[in-house]
Design brief:
By secondary structure, this protein is α/β, with parallel strands linked by helices. Strand 6, helix 9 and strand 7 form a beta-alpha-beta unit. The protein is globular. Helix content is 47%, strand content 15%. The protein has a seven-stranded mixed beta sheet, with helices on both faces. Helix 4 packs antiparallel against helix 8.
């Protein structure tokens, strides 16, 4: 089954940006970025990950980040995209790393947002707590707790109606406990730390230092291990600082893409 996907921006653009979201899996996560990327002249592809949103269906046993990278390759094929700049948030960043290892010819560059190359005990504790909520109290409790891990407290308080609407939407479109447990198991098993030096794509590593879910030091580790990485750290914004501070976030991504495209030799 071809995953649900959207294509934005000029159809004749020379460069395509593919957006891969985090655990929620939804293309809608990138609403703050899509207009800015399209206005800058990029063709933009966003998709709902397998088993989420408008790409429903049971996930196979042993579903992994490698399977998710294969899914991205299928979306690229379906949109006639030979090569993309992949922007991935958290789990989506892991997918980008895996695709860069499995099919490097398809990755022109990577933007990794609050991502990681190996497990860490703090994030494991957070996922244990979230899964305990899901198992004991069900999806409503799980999604009500989600903003605590995504956003800074002050931002949540100042945007309470937006946050509640997002929670209600997540509950209405919850993919099911089995799918969520499978997706969390996949990201918890991911470890490519020893292979980072094999990834040659230019990479922008972005992190907010007040991320509650993923320590910013995991991004520092990515920047240290990837041969062509630049690290962008911001002090505030939380795990989803692409949402809480979209202006500076978009500016940073667009500047990186412009530098990368300018430095790429034109094919004869």
């Amino acid at each position: 089954m071809t995953l649900y996907h959207e294509v934005h921006g000029p159809s004749d653009a020379a460069e395509t940006v593919l957006l891969s979201s985090g655990l929620g899996g939804s293309a809608a996560f990138w609403k703050p970025q899509i207009p800015a990327l399209a206005a800058a002249g990029y063709r933009v592809v966003a998709y709902d990950q397998r088993g989420t949103g408008r790409s429903p269906g049971a996930l196979p046993a042993g579903y992994s980040i490698a399977h998710m990278a294969t899914d991205v390759a299928e979306v690229l094929d379906a949109t006639g995209t030979a090569r993309c700049h992949l922007v991935g948030h958290a789990l989506g960043g892991l997918v980008g790393l895996q695709l860069a290892l499995d099919a490097p010819q398809r990755v022109a560059s990577l933007v990794l947002v609050n991502a990681w190359s190996r497990p860490n005990p703090h994030s494991a504790r957070c996922f244990d707590a979230r899964l305990a909520l899901l198992g004991a109290l069900g999806p409503r409790a799980y999604v009500e707790a989600q903003p605590i891990f995504l956003y800074p407290a002050a931002w949540c308080a100042a945007n309470a109606e937006t946050v509640q609407a997002e929670v209600d939407h997540a509950f209405a479109h919850f993919p099911g406990e089995a799918a969520m447990r499978t997706r969390i198991a996949a990201l918890r098993a991911f470890d490519v730390d020893a292979r980072l030096s094999d990834i040659s794509a230019p990479t922008l590593v972005m992190a907010a230092m007040d991320d509650t879910l993923v320590p910013w030091t995991m991004s520092r580790r990515l920047a240290e291990g990837l041969p062509r990485a630049t690290l962008d750290l911001v002090p505030h914004g939380g795990h989803a600082h692409s949402v809480t501070a979209p202006g500076p976030f978009n500016d940073c991504v667009l500047a990186f893409l412009a530098r990368t495209v300018a430095a790429t030799p034109v094919a004869a």
